[in-house]
Amino acid sequence: MNLNKMFKTINNLKLLQFLVLLTISFYFFHSTENDAFLACSVIFIHLYFTTGFLDAECCFSITIRKNLKCNIGWSIGLTFSMALHKKDLSLLKSIQESLESIGSITKHNKDSIRLQVTSKKDLAIIIKHLEIFPLITQKFPDYLLLKQAFELYSNKEHLTIQGLKKLVAIKSAMNFRFIKWIKKSLSWCETCN
To answer: What is the CATH number of the domain that holds 76?
Structure first.
C-alpha cells in the first residue's frame, strides 16, 4: 500500500466514525415507542458506514455438502450474512437498500433477524461494493478468500474435482476447525490428507 492510499484510508476512517455517530444519533433521537417512524422510512446511510457495519457484523461462509445429485457428489454454497436484534430491522433494511436491495431479510431466532445473500448476482454486488469501499479489520482476509471462491464458482470450476479441492483449501483457510471434518469426509482426496 502506498503512502497516499494509506492517508486516504485514514481520512476515510475519520469520515466513517463521523457517519456512524451521525447515524446512531439519528436512530436514537427519532425512534418512538413503536418505531413507526423508522419502520416506514429507510435511513440514508453512506456507503462507508455500510462497509464499517459489515466489518463489525457480517459473516462470509463457504458450505460444502455431500450431494449425490451433483456430478462430483458435492455441492457448494457461498453465503454473506449479517444478523441483528429485531429492533434494528429498519437499520438492516437500510443496509440492504444501500447494497442495491440484495438478499433477503428473515427471522434468525427469537430476538434476531438476518440479511442473507446466496445468489451469484447478489454476491457480485457485495464484492463490487467491497472493492470500492474495502474492509479494514481482520475480516478482510476472509473476504479475499470468499472472493477467490466466488471466482472459482463463477468460472464453474466448482463442478470439477480439481475445483472442489481448491474450494476445500480456501474454506480450510477460513475456518481451521473445518479441516478435521473435511479430511474425514474426503478421504479419497489425496491432497486433503
So the answer is: 3.10.28.10
